Amino acid sequence: MNKLLLISAATLIVSSNAFAADMGVAFEWGPTKKCFDSKSPPIKLSNVPQGTAKLLIKMIDQNASSFDHGGGSVAFKGQAQLPYGAFKYKGPCPPSGTHFYKITVKAVDASGKTLSSGSATQPFSKK
C-alpha cells in the first residue's frame, strides 16, 4: 500500500513538473535590417502547451528599456517556427555599440489566459 502511494505521488510530481515546463524560445536576427525593420525576426518555439490559441510577443532593448519596440500577436496553429515578418514591430537600432534585445513570447488560450511563456536574448550591433 505504501509503495503504491509513493509511486502515485512520484507520478504526480513528474506530471506537474512536465506541465510547468517553460516554453522554449530562440531567435537569430537573420534577414533583420538596421534600423527599425518593421518585420519580426524568425523565432523558433518548443514546448508550446496544448490549448494555445495565440502567441503574444514583445521585444525590449535591455540597454534602453524605455524605448518601446512593441511586439505582435500570432495565431498558433502548431507551428514550431514563426518566419521573418510574422508580425510587425519596431526592430533594433542601437545608437552606438551593441545592445541586447529580449524577445518574450506568451502562449495564451482562447479566453486570454496565459498558459506558458519563454524568452530569449540576442545582441545586435550598430551596422
Fold and architecture overview:
- This protein has 127 residues and is mostly beta strands.
- Helices cover 15% and strands 39% of the residues.
- It has a 4-stranded antiparallel β-sheet, with no helix packed on it.
- A hairpin with a 5-residue loop joins strand 6 (98-108) and strand 7 (114-125).
- The longest helix is centred in the first third of the chain and has 19 residues, at 2-20.
- It is elongated, with a radius of gyration of 18 Å.
Helix content: 10-25%
Measured distance between first and last alpha carbons: 67 Å
Percentage beta strand: 35-45%
Radius of gyration: 18 Å
Topology pattern, helix = H, strand = E: HEEEEEEE
Shape: elongated
Q: Which structural category do the helix and sheet elements fall into? A: mainly beta
Q: Number of helical segments?
A: 1
Biggest sheet details: 4 strands, antiparallel
Secondary structure tally: strands: 7
Please give the order of strands in the largest beta sheet. 4-3-6-7
List low-confidence stretches: 2-20
Query: What is the average per-residue confidence, as pLDDT, rounded to a whole number?
Result: 85
